[in-house]
Structures are given as C-alpha cells and as structure tokens.
Amino acid sequence: MRFIIALAALLLSATGLAAENSHLAFVSEYVREIGINEELRELAFKEVTEPGADKNAAMIRSGTRIVLELNSQVAMLKGMSLNPPFDKLPETIADFYEQKIDAYNRMTAMATAFVQGPKPGVDYGALAAEAPKLTAMIEYLDRSIFQATPLIFATLIADKPDSKGHMSRLRITRAERDELARSLQISFGNKMEQTDQNWIVSSATVLRDYLIKKGYKCSDDPQ
Length: 223
What we know:
With about 220 residues, this protein is an all-alpha fold. The protein has a domain at about 1-155. Helix content is about 70%, strand content about 0%.
C-alpha cells in the first residue's frame, strides 16, 4: 500500500513537472519566433526600400524566406501540447502564422507576375491594388498575435494561489524567467523602449514587462 501511494505521488509530481516544462518550452519557442520574425521583417523592409533595388525581386526573396520560416514555426507549435485552459493556444498561434503564409505567398505570386512581364489575360492593375490589402492583412494578424501575448504569458502563472488567494507566482524559476527576458533583450534591444513600435516589437515589450515589471514571484522565490 505504501509503495502504491509513493508511486502515485511520483507520477503526479512527474506530470506536474512535465506541464511546467511544456509551458516554459512554449513561451521560449514563442520568444524565439517573434525574434526571428522581427529580424526577417526588418530585412525585408530594408531590401525592398533600398535605393535602386528591384522591388519585385526583393519581395520574392523576402517573401520566400519568411514563408519558409513560418512553415517551420507552424510545425513546431503544432507539435506542442499544453494543459487546459491553454490547450488550444499553440494551435491558435499556428493558425495566425498560416494566414500570414497565405498572404506572403500571394505577395510573392504577385511580384513574380510582374517580374515575368506582360501576359494576356492578366489584370496587372488589380494585382497592384491587392498589395496594400495584403499588407493590411499581415498587420492585422500581427496585432492579433500581440493581443494574445498576455495569454501566452499566463501559461507561466502557477495554478495555485498564494496565501492571500492571488495568482502571483510563476511556475518557472528566477533563472528561467531571466533567461526569457535576456532572449527578448538580445532579439529586440532598444526597440522595446521606442514609442513607435510595430506589433511584433510590441508583443516582445508586453511579454518583457509581464516577466520583469509586474511583480510576479518565481517558483524558487521565498513564500
């Protein structure tokens, strides 16, 4: 009987540890993704706006690069699992990325049509008019991801209230929290202090502030 009780306690402990690790892995992956996505966004803007650049060729190159990365991120997210109530969150972020993939693929196809030159039956005016619509769609999706960032942080909050009944403690250690903040700082640096942030940088800033500035205690902090 004692053996069975001890085994049950061990299994419950291992399950809780796995949940904590999966939540940390999810947020760590999200931090990695938004860092890479901002880097690729900035590179694309530089290539397209560079004086004398072939804008269509730059759009094809940058769009292809971004789609390849987003496909990899979708695969990573769909391979992750979280406990309820966060079980749908990785899939939701992956869905946003898949919609961005569709938009970038359309932009790449549009730029390719212009590079190939005039062909009968192609409405190039309609293609050109579609470009700002696709840009607006990408901005909308980045804003949606930004709006989901507080929920992404919430996966790190321990599911047991403190002595005052508040959910004030994280399920990760101080070292793990600091590593997340350090990764954000490496990827975004002073961009997180700017007032004219894009949605990707804003996502990083919100996550950094929740981690560092909101007063949450870590799992290894004194009670």
